[in-house]
Amino acid sequence: MESRAVVIGPGYYADTDISSPKEIRNSARKYVEVLGSDPKWGEDRVRSVPPESLSSINEVMTIVQQAADEATEGGTLLVIYVGHGARWRDVPGDQVHFAVESSRRRAPWTWLSSWYVYRAIRKSRATLKVLIADCCCSNMLPDLGDGDRDGSLPGVLGEEDEGTCVLAAAANNPEVSSEGCTQLPDEDLRECTPFSGHLLSILRNGTKNHDDELTIGMIRDALRRDLARCGTHDKAKIRLNDSREGAPLFTNRKIEGQRDDPPSPDSVEEWAVALKTPSGIRSIDQLLRDPQKTGKVVAMLYGDPDSQDIALLVNERANKSFQDSGQFAIYWVEACGTVPE
Questions:
Q1: Which of 75, 34, 81, 84 is nearest to 60 (CA)?
Q2: pTM of the complete model
Q3: Which pLDDT does position 245 carry in this prediction?
Q4: What pLDDT is attached to residue 173?
């Protein structure tokens, strides 16, 4: 299982009509830094397009394609673009285009069509495929799904269970400001674009959610909450090709003692699901207060070949916890169907 991330951040433009704000370069650099220190990613899985390649559409796409080819089943392909976006209604396909450093404002053919980025992403064998776009017109990017099924880009087959997602810097406004947000807690992130600064703050500092990983849905909710609290920037937009809001994408780096307590499972089914997560495992003591429910949970988990190790772990804890013979008998009847002699 291999995951790959590519960061594209063209910051210097030959066309003087295209601004070259320092926030674009700072954001791209911080993405590489933050993802490189994330245990779920690491420096060997994160690559930025080098400065000498940022003026060439061919070289940018070559690096994106390499990452797409290297990502494997079970892994994640993440493409991050920070820069300028544009859209021309009189260009065939009417697609959003990404600027490279040789792009010219009035020359659409010098911009990178998002269609080619999408094609590389969707052809990858990676199980989860995510595009993060911090640019103008990002709200007009289509889904990453199969065009025959959902009306998005045609020409590339994609399966629903592959999990594809677009995270855009704007929900409704085609224009996105690049001026840094002074309300961010980390001073260095105030020198990034507002969207990337807020996202990077979440990735660096984590959230109060009890889970050890940040899922797509958690990132969306945290971004919307932070941007709403800030009050000066547009809301982010997430477009899911399927229902994989629970797909883990980054590590939750909030210190465990500063997180909210996990919700308490109630039914046997809820416990069986919860115990498959790190936070659920930490809640075993709560489950052990009810020997009958513990036995039913163990029986359910042991009936699933992929969960038998968890069932054995709970059983081991139950054997130590239920010292009273009556409690142990109640547990054992449910767990194994046999009253011990």
A1: 81
A2: 0.78
A3: 74
A4: 67
